[in-house]
Amino acid sequence: MFSRNVVVQGKQSSKDTSFLGISLSDHPKPDFSPLALKGCRQRGVSAGGVRAQTAAVITPAVTRSPTDGKKTLRKGSVIVTGASSGLGLATAKALAETGKWHVIMACRDFLKAERAAKSAGMNKENYTVMHLDLASLDSVRQFVRNFQQSNMPLDVLVCNAAVYQPNARQPSFTADGFELGVGVNHLGHFLLARLLLDDLNKSEYPSRRLIIVGSITGNTNTVAGNVPPKADLGDLRGLAGGLNGLNSSAMINGGTFIGAKAYKDSKVCNMLTMQEFHRRYHEETGITFASLYPGCIADTQLFRHHIPEFRFLFPLFQKYVTKGFVSEEESGKRLAQVVSDPSLTKSGVYWSWNKNSASFENQLSQEASDPEKARRVWEISEKLVGLA
């Protein structure tokens, strides 16, 4: 039986990063293992003034049969970022409803996530809300501390949360000075995944997985991916410069800031990162690394910052013209499938679904599957988040 779950509600960064739940106790420093920090040096970890509260929550464990003493499989334990709304909430609900998973809802707005879980009818025994602000690297490190001290296992990590500001004329920035979209969507998740990798590796669950949500808009080998502005990481000069908008461009390719492009670029980074995880760690650990595009969720809160006309017309266009509309409920089931389906254990794959809702291995664009660019994004990102 797990000892208890740790619930943390910490101070927010000065920037408004409200999105998908990222609205958006001094603990001893965890001993991050050599696997998580392979070939790297970790920056000092600060508690950042975050206060911790503990709440006893019964969670599943490996139990023994009273008759034969054999082990029975416990519930799986999965972290889902951005689980207070949209795709993240739909995924958390789909997994919790099976009774086979305990979902850690990693969200910036603690109360919003609790209300969302209750409204979705999720059984309290099947979820725990923990504070995570991906716009702050200190918050990411604090989340890892709190999770590790909760004594919960980690079987699957789902990097889902995202920020999308298509109409922004000027960039916003994270607490660490990175352009907000790439800072949250890529760098925050990159640090989170690296620090939790050893926890995944320690799990005895039959299929351990690390899943990073991608997007069709970051793939220029699709019609949607060719809608301007197109994703283009260029030579990564902006990323290498820190994306701070001062002595470096806020855009990865070093160009002029465009909100919609910043999101698409971050999704390319997500898909490249998944493949680099696969190349570096799959053979050694057996962990499945995957990405996916769950379909066009045209009425999601992802578009909350878009103009009203777009928010009204886009769902209608997807429903009645392209026929590509996918509900949040259906998309959540698809992501839950990548979390738990025994047939989707192949590593290094970008999953998609056809009109019959059948999954298949999709092809990534040339840039989103470039191994050299993936290596460079990885190495630069290590430096930016303090792992090198």
Automatic annotation (TrEMBL):
Keywords: Chlorophyll biosynthesis, Chloroplast, NADP, Oxidoreductase, Photosynthesis, Plastid, Transit peptide. It is an enzyme of class 1 (oxidoreductase). GO terms for biological process: chlorophyll biosynthetic process; photosynthesis. GO terms for cellular component: chloroplast. It is found in: Plastid, Chloroplast. It holds the Pfam family adh_short. SUPFAM superfamilies: NAD(P)-binding Rossmann-fold domains (SSF51735). Its EC number is 1.3.1.33. It catalyses: chlorophyllide a + NADP(+) = protochlorophyllide a + NADPH + H(+). Pathway: Porphyrin-containing compound metabolism; chlorophyll biosynthesis. The keyword Disulfide bond does not apply. One of its GO terms (molecular function) is protochlorophyllide reductase activity. The keyword tRNA-binding does not apply. CDD domains: LPOR_like_SDR_c_like. PANTHER family: PROTOCHLOROPHYLLIDE REDUCTASE C, CHLOROPLASTIC (PTHR44419). Phototransformation of protochlorophyllide (Pchlide) to chlorophyllide (Chlide). Belongs to the short-chain dehydrogenases/reductases (SDR) family. POR subfamily. This is NADPH-protochlorophyllide oxidoreductase. It comes from Colocasia esculenta. The lineage of its organism: Eukaryota, Viridiplantae, Streptophyta, Embryophyta, Tracheophyta.
